[in-house]
Specification:
- The protein is mainly alpha-helical and 364 residues long.
- It has 18 helices and no strands.
Length: 364
Protein backbone atom coordinates (compact mmCIF):
# COMPACT_ATOMS: atom_id res chain seq x y z
CA UNK A 1 0.00 0.00 0.00
CA UNK A 2 2.79 2.42 0.87
CA UNK A 3 4.80 2.06 -2.31
CA UNK A 4 1.70 2.52 -4.46
CA UNK A 5 1.50 6.19 -3.45
CA UNK A 6 3.86 9.21 -3.58
CA UNK A 7 5.85 9.68 -0.36
CA UNK A 8 4.07 11.67 2.35
CA UNK A 9 4.42 11.91 6.11
CA UNK A 10 1.24 9.90 6.70
CA UNK A 11 3.18 6.84 5.59
CA UNK A 12 5.87 7.10 8.25
CA UNK A 13 4.08 4.92 10.81
CA UNK A 14 3.51 1.87 8.55
CA UNK A 15 7.03 2.25 7.17
CA UNK A 16 8.53 2.35 10.66
CA UNK A 17 6.50 -0.73 11.61
CA UNK A 18 7.71 -2.56 8.50
CA UNK A 19 11.28 -1.54 9.27
CA UNK A 20 11.03 -2.98 12.78
CA UNK A 21 9.70 -6.28 11.42
CA UNK A 22 12.38 -6.45 8.72
CA UNK A 23 15.12 -5.83 11.29
CA UNK A 24 13.65 -8.48 13.63
CA UNK A 25 13.73 -10.98 10.76
CA UNK A 26 17.28 -9.90 9.84
CA UNK A 27 15.89 -9.40 6.31
CA UNK A 28 18.53 -7.11 4.78
CA UNK A 29 16.88 -6.69 1.39
CA UNK A 30 13.57 -5.48 2.81
CA UNK A 31 15.32 -3.37 5.45
CA UNK A 32 17.30 -1.58 2.73
CA UNK A 33 14.15 -1.06 0.64
CA UNK A 34 12.15 0.42 3.54
CA UNK A 35 15.05 2.66 4.57
CA UNK A 36 15.20 3.91 0.99
CA UNK A 37 11.50 4.77 1.12
CA UNK A 38 11.77 6.41 4.56
CA UNK A 39 14.57 8.64 3.27
CA UNK A 40 12.54 9.59 0.21
CA UNK A 41 9.47 10.36 2.32
CA UNK A 42 11.35 12.72 4.64
CA UNK A 43 13.22 14.52 1.90
CA UNK A 44 10.16 14.96 -0.33
CA UNK A 45 8.25 16.34 2.63
CA UNK A 46 11.14 18.72 3.49
CA UNK A 47 11.37 17.17 6.94
CA UNK A 48 14.43 16.24 9.05
CA UNK A 49 17.11 16.14 6.38
CA UNK A 50 19.72 14.74 8.78
CA UNK A 51 17.54 11.71 9.53
CA UNK A 52 16.80 11.26 5.82
CA UNK A 53 20.53 11.17 5.16
CA UNK A 54 21.04 8.49 7.81
CA UNK A 55 18.28 6.38 6.27
CA UNK A 56 19.79 6.78 2.82
CA UNK A 57 23.31 5.86 3.90
CA UNK A 58 22.16 2.75 5.79
CA UNK A 59 19.97 1.72 2.86
CA UNK A 60 22.95 1.91 0.51
CA UNK A 61 25.23 -0.01 2.90
CA UNK A 62 22.72 -2.85 3.25
CA UNK A 63 21.95 -2.86 -0.47
CA UNK A 64 25.65 -3.32 -1.26
CA UNK A 65 25.76 -6.22 1.22
CA UNK A 66 22.92 -7.97 -0.63
CA UNK A 67 24.72 -7.61 -3.96
CA UNK A 68 21.37 -6.93 -5.68
CA UNK A 69 22.21 -4.46 -8.48
CA UNK A 70 18.62 -3.24 -8.80
CA UNK A 71 18.42 -2.45 -5.09
CA UNK A 72 21.86 -0.79 -5.12
CA UNK A 73 20.75 1.47 -7.97
CA UNK A 74 17.61 2.48 -6.07
CA UNK A 75 19.56 3.19 -2.88
CA UNK A 76 22.11 5.28 -4.80
CA UNK A 77 19.28 7.22 -6.40
CA UNK A 78 17.83 7.94 -2.96
CA UNK A 79 21.21 9.09 -1.61
CA UNK A 80 21.44 11.41 -4.63
CA UNK A 81 17.99 12.88 -4.02
CA UNK A 82 18.75 13.50 -0.35
CA UNK A 83 22.04 15.21 -1.25
CA UNK A 84 20.31 17.29 -3.92
CA UNK A 85 17.72 18.49 -1.38
CA UNK A 86 20.65 19.77 0.72
CA UNK A 87 22.17 21.47 -2.39
CA UNK A 88 25.20 19.15 -2.10
CA UNK A 89 25.43 18.93 -5.87
CA UNK A 90 28.83 17.19 -6.08
CA UNK A 91 27.67 14.36 -3.80
CA UNK A 92 24.33 14.13 -5.60
CA UNK A 93 26.00 14.02 -9.01
CA UNK A 94 28.32 11.19 -7.94
CA UNK A 95 25.46 9.10 -6.51
CA UNK A 96 23.23 9.61 -9.54
CA UNK A 97 26.00 8.76 -12.01
CA UNK A 98 26.82 5.53 -10.18
CA UNK A 99 23.10 4.69 -10.02
CA UNK A 100 22.76 5.24 -13.77
CA UNK A 101 25.80 3.05 -14.45
CA UNK A 102 24.38 0.19 -12.36
CA UNK A 103 20.94 0.52 -13.98
CA UNK A 104 22.52 0.39 -17.43
CA UNK A 105 24.46 -2.75 -16.50
CA UNK A 106 21.25 -4.60 -15.61
CA UNK A 107 19.20 -2.89 -18.36
CA UNK A 108 16.82 -1.35 -15.85
CA UNK A 109 15.34 1.26 -18.19
CA UNK A 110 12.83 2.57 -15.66
CA UNK A 111 15.64 3.05 -13.15
CA UNK A 112 17.64 4.85 -15.84
CA UNK A 113 14.72 7.25 -16.39
CA UNK A 114 14.43 7.99 -12.66
CA UNK A 115 18.15 8.66 -12.33
CA UNK A 116 18.28 10.83 -15.46
CA UNK A 117 15.77 13.04 -13.63
CA UNK A 118 18.22 13.36 -10.75
CA UNK A 119 21.15 14.15 -13.04
CA UNK A 120 19.07 16.77 -14.85
CA UNK A 121 17.97 18.40 -11.60
CA UNK A 122 21.53 18.42 -10.27
CA UNK A 123 22.87 20.05 -13.43
CA UNK A 124 20.05 22.61 -13.29
CA UNK A 125 20.87 23.37 -9.66
CA UNK A 126 24.50 24.05 -10.64
CA UNK A 127 23.40 26.34 -13.46
CA UNK A 128 24.62 23.89 -16.14
CA UNK A 129 21.45 24.26 -18.19
CA UNK A 130 22.78 22.73 -21.42
CA UNK A 131 23.88 19.62 -19.53
CA UNK A 132 20.50 19.46 -17.81
CA UNK A 133 18.74 19.59 -21.18
CA UNK A 134 20.84 16.69 -22.44
CA UNK A 135 19.80 14.48 -19.53
CA UNK A 136 16.12 15.42 -19.86
CA UNK A 137 16.16 14.75 -23.62
CA UNK A 138 17.54 11.26 -22.92
CA UNK A 139 14.80 10.76 -20.37
CA UNK A 140 12.13 11.97 -22.79
CA UNK A 141 13.22 9.39 -25.37
CA UNK A 142 12.92 6.63 -22.75
CA UNK A 143 9.47 7.80 -21.70
CA UNK A 144 8.39 7.89 -25.36
CA UNK A 145 9.47 4.25 -25.67
CA UNK A 146 7.48 3.41 -22.52
CA UNK A 147 4.49 5.31 -23.94
CA UNK A 148 3.81 6.91 -20.55
CA UNK A 149 1.99 10.16 -21.34
CA UNK A 150 2.11 11.43 -17.77
CA UNK A 151 5.88 11.02 -17.61
CA UNK A 152 6.23 12.67 -21.04
CA UNK A 153 4.27 15.65 -19.72
CA UNK A 154 6.54 15.81 -16.65
CA UNK A 155 9.71 15.78 -18.76
CA UNK A 156 8.25 18.37 -21.11
CA UNK A 157 7.78 20.68 -18.10
CA UNK A 158 11.41 20.11 -17.13
CA UNK A 159 12.57 20.93 -20.67
CA UNK A 160 10.45 24.09 -20.66
CA UNK A 161 11.97 25.19 -17.34
CA UNK A 162 15.48 24.65 -18.71
CA UNK A 163 14.63 26.53 -21.92
CA UNK A 164 13.39 29.46 -19.81
CA UNK A 165 16.78 29.73 -18.09
CA UNK A 166 18.56 29.45 -21.45
CA UNK A 167 16.48 32.35 -22.74
CA UNK A 168 14.82 30.28 -25.47
CA UNK A 169 11.21 31.46 -25.23
CA UNK A 170 10.13 29.61 -28.40
CA UNK A 171 11.31 26.34 -26.86
CA UNK A 172 9.49 27.18 -23.60
CA UNK A 173 6.26 27.61 -25.56
CA UNK A 174 6.81 24.37 -27.46
CA UNK A 175 7.70 22.18 -24.46
CA UNK A 176 5.23 23.74 -22.01
CA UNK A 177 2.53 23.68 -24.70
CA UNK A 178 3.13 19.95 -25.17
CA UNK A 179 2.95 19.37 -21.43
CA UNK A 180 -0.20 21.49 -21.14
CA UNK A 181 -1.91 19.55 -23.94
CA UNK A 182 -1.03 16.22 -22.31
CA UNK A 183 -2.13 17.51 -18.91
CA UNK A 184 -5.51 18.59 -20.25
CA UNK A 185 -5.91 15.29 -22.13
CA UNK A 186 -5.14 13.28 -18.99
CA UNK A 187 -7.00 15.64 -16.66
CA UNK A 188 -3.95 16.02 -14.37
CA UNK A 189 -4.10 19.37 -12.58
CA UNK A 190 -0.41 19.38 -11.58
CA UNK A 191 0.84 19.25 -15.17
CA UNK A 192 -1.66 21.93 -16.20
CA UNK A 193 -0.60 24.18 -13.30
CA UNK A 194 3.15 23.81 -13.91
CA UNK A 195 2.81 24.27 -17.69
CA UNK A 196 0.78 27.45 -17.30
CA UNK A 197 3.24 28.73 -14.71
CA UNK A 198 6.14 28.30 -17.13
CA UNK A 199 4.22 29.92 -19.99
CA UNK A 200 3.34 32.82 -17.69
CA UNK A 201 6.92 33.27 -16.51
CA UNK A 202 8.10 33.33 -20.12
CA UNK A 203 5.66 36.20 -20.73
CA UNK A 204 7.00 38.01 -17.67
CA UNK A 205 10.60 37.69 -18.86
CA UNK A 206 9.49 39.15 -22.19
CA UNK A 207 7.95 42.10 -20.33
CA UNK A 208 4.35 41.13 -21.14
CA UNK A 209 2.68 41.32 -17.72
CA UNK A 210 -0.79 41.66 -19.23
CA UNK A 211 -0.30 38.46 -21.23
CA UNK A 212 1.17 36.65 -18.22
CA UNK A 213 -1.65 37.39 -15.77
CA UNK A 214 -4.43 35.14 -17.19
CA UNK A 215 -1.99 32.23 -17.58
CA UNK A 216 -0.82 32.64 -13.99
CA UNK A 217 -4.35 33.06 -12.63
CA UNK A 218 -5.33 29.72 -14.15
CA UNK A 219 -2.09 28.15 -12.89
CA UNK A 220 -2.95 29.36 -9.39
CA UNK A 221 -6.51 28.05 -9.62
CA UNK A 222 -5.27 24.62 -10.73
CA UNK A 223 -2.57 24.62 -8.05
CA UNK A 224 -5.14 25.11 -5.34
CA UNK A 225 -6.86 21.88 -6.42
CA UNK A 226 -3.76 19.91 -5.39
CA UNK A 227 -3.08 18.52 -1.93
CA UNK A 228 0.64 17.86 -2.42
CA UNK A 229 3.55 19.01 -4.61
CA UNK A 230 1.58 22.06 -5.67
CA UNK A 231 3.23 25.05 -7.41
CA UNK A 232 0.80 27.41 -5.62
CA UNK A 233 3.57 29.40 -3.94
CA UNK A 234 5.55 29.80 -7.17
CA UNK A 235 2.36 30.73 -9.04
CA UNK A 236 1.59 33.43 -6.45
CA UNK A 237 5.12 34.85 -6.72
CA UNK A 238 4.85 35.00 -10.52
CA UNK A 239 1.35 36.51 -10.30
CA UNK A 240 2.75 39.09 -7.88
CA UNK A 241 5.31 40.08 -10.52
CA UNK A 242 2.55 40.28 -13.14
CA UNK A 243 0.43 42.53 -10.92
CA UNK A 244 3.49 44.69 -10.29
CA UNK A 245 4.10 45.01 -14.03
CA UNK A 246 0.51 46.08 -14.58
CA UNK A 247 0.71 48.57 -11.70
CA UNK A 248 -1.66 46.82 -9.28
CA UNK A 249 0.61 47.17 -6.26
CA UNK A 250 -1.84 46.13 -3.53
CA UNK A 251 -2.69 42.93 -5.38
CA UNK A 252 1.02 42.30 -6.01
CA UNK A 253 1.83 42.64 -2.31
CA UNK A 254 -1.10 40.40 -1.31
CA UNK A 255 0.04 37.61 -3.66
CA UNK A 256 3.65 37.85 -2.49
CA UNK A 257 2.75 37.84 1.22
CA UNK A 258 0.55 34.77 0.66
CA UNK A 259 3.43 33.09 -1.23
CA UNK A 260 5.78 33.85 1.67
CA UNK A 261 3.36 32.25 4.15
CA UNK A 262 2.97 29.11 2.02
CA UNK A 263 6.73 28.74 1.58
CA UNK A 264 7.38 29.27 5.27
CA UNK A 265 4.74 26.68 6.23
CA UNK A 266 6.24 24.05 3.91
CA UNK A 267 9.91 24.86 4.60
CA UNK A 268 10.51 25.96 0.99
CA UNK A 269 13.41 28.37 1.52
CA UNK A 270 13.75 29.22 -2.17
CA UNK A 271 10.12 30.31 -2.25
CA UNK A 272 10.63 32.51 0.82
CA UNK A 273 13.52 34.37 -0.82
CA UNK A 274 11.63 34.71 -4.12
CA UNK A 275 8.63 36.25 -2.34
CA UNK A 276 10.84 38.74 -0.48
CA UNK A 277 12.54 39.74 -3.76
CA UNK A 278 9.12 40.47 -5.23
CA UNK A 279 8.17 42.55 -2.19
CA UNK A 280 11.42 44.47 -2.58
CA UNK A 281 10.40 45.32 -6.15
CA UNK A 282 6.97 46.48 -4.92
CA UNK A 283 8.75 48.74 -2.45
CA UNK A 284 10.93 50.14 -5.20
CA UNK A 285 7.94 50.73 -7.49
CA UNK A 286 6.29 52.62 -4.61
CA UNK A 287 9.38 54.79 -4.06
CA UNK A 288 10.19 53.20 -0.69
CA UNK A 289 13.80 52.85 -1.67
CA UNK A 290 15.46 52.06 1.68
CA UNK A 291 12.85 49.42 2.42
CA UNK A 292 13.45 47.93 -1.03
CA UNK A 293 17.21 47.78 -0.43
CA UNK A 294 16.70 46.10 2.97
CA UNK A 295 14.41 43.49 1.44
CA UNK A 296 16.81 42.80 -1.42
CA UNK A 297 19.61 42.36 1.11
CA UNK A 298 17.49 40.03 3.25
CA UNK A 299 16.56 37.92 0.21
CA UNK A 300 20.18 37.66 -0.94
CA UNK A 301 21.32 36.54 2.52
CA UNK A 302 18.45 34.04 2.66
CA UNK A 303 19.52 32.51 -0.65
CA UNK A 304 23.11 32.24 0.55
CA UNK A 305 22.12 30.54 3.82
CA UNK A 306 19.70 28.09 2.23
CA UNK A 307 21.62 27.28 -0.96
CA UNK A 308 18.66 28.19 -3.23
CA UNK A 309 20.36 30.05 -6.08
CA UNK A 310 18.66 32.68 -8.22
CA UNK A 311 18.37 31.48 -11.83
CA UNK A 312 18.54 33.79 -14.88
CA UNK A 313 14.76 34.19 -15.09
CA UNK A 314 14.67 35.21 -11.41
CA UNK A 315 17.41 37.77 -12.00
CA UNK A 316 15.68 39.09 -15.13
CA UNK A 317 12.69 40.08 -12.99
CA UNK A 318 14.53 41.41 -9.94
CA UNK A 319 17.66 43.10 -11.29
CA UNK A 320 16.01 46.13 -12.96
CA UNK A 321 14.42 47.06 -9.64
CA UNK A 322 17.63 46.35 -7.73
CA UNK A 323 19.57 48.65 -10.06
CA UNK A 324 16.87 51.33 -9.81
CA UNK A 325 17.07 51.14 -6.02
CA UNK A 326 20.85 51.50 -6.07
CA UNK A 327 20.61 54.50 -8.40
CA UNK A 328 17.90 56.18 -6.30
CA UNK A 329 19.75 55.84 -3.00
CA UNK A 330 23.34 56.18 -4.07
CA UNK A 331 26.06 53.78 -3.08
CA UNK A 332 26.43 54.74 0.60
CA UNK A 333 22.74 54.70 1.57
CA UNK A 334 22.11 51.61 -0.53
CA UNK A 335 24.94 49.69 1.13
CA UNK A 336 23.73 50.67 4.61
CA UNK A 337 20.17 49.51 3.90
CA UNK A 338 21.31 46.36 2.06
CA UNK A 339 23.59 45.34 4.93
CA UNK A 340 20.85 46.07 7.48
CA UNK A 341 18.60 43.73 5.51
CA UNK A 342 21.23 41.01 5.43
CA UNK A 343 21.22 40.98 9.23
CA UNK A 344 17.48 40.35 9.32
CA UNK A 345 15.72 37.04 9.32
CA UNK A 346 13.35 36.91 6.38
CA UNK A 347 10.21 36.96 8.54
CA UNK A 348 11.52 40.12 10.24
CA UNK A 349 12.09 41.66 6.83
CA UNK A 350 8.53 40.82 5.82
CA UNK A 351 7.05 42.28 9.01
CA UNK A 352 8.99 45.52 8.55
CA UNK A 353 7.70 45.69 4.97
CA UNK A 354 4.07 45.30 6.08
CA UNK A 355 4.49 47.81 8.91
CA UNK A 356 6.23 50.29 6.65
CA UNK A 357 8.89 50.98 9.25
CA UNK A 358 12.59 50.40 9.75
CA UNK A 359 12.99 47.33 11.95
CA UNK A 360 15.45 46.57 14.68
CA UNK A 361 18.01 44.24 13.11
CA UNK A 362 19.37 41.09 14.71
CA UNK A 363 22.13 38.76 13.64
CA UNK A 364 20.70 35.44 12.46
Amino acid sequence: LVVAHPPDLGQMEPLQETLSLARALNYSWLTAWVLHYLGLTLVRSRQDHAQAQLYGEESLRLARQTGDAWLIARALDTVGRIALAAHATARADGAFKESLQVSEQVTDRLGMAWTLWGLGETAFERGSYGEARGYEEQRFRLEQEFGTKGAMAYVSCALARIALELGNVAEVRSAAGRSLALGRELGIASFIAWSLLLLGRAKLVEGDADGARPLLEESLARSRELEAHSPEGDARVALGWAELGIGELEQAQAQLVAAFALAQESGYDGGISAAVEGLAAVGARSGRWEEAARLFGAAAAGRERSGWRAHPSDRALAEPWLLATHEALGEHLFDDAWNAGRRLQLDQALLSNLAGEEPESHDT
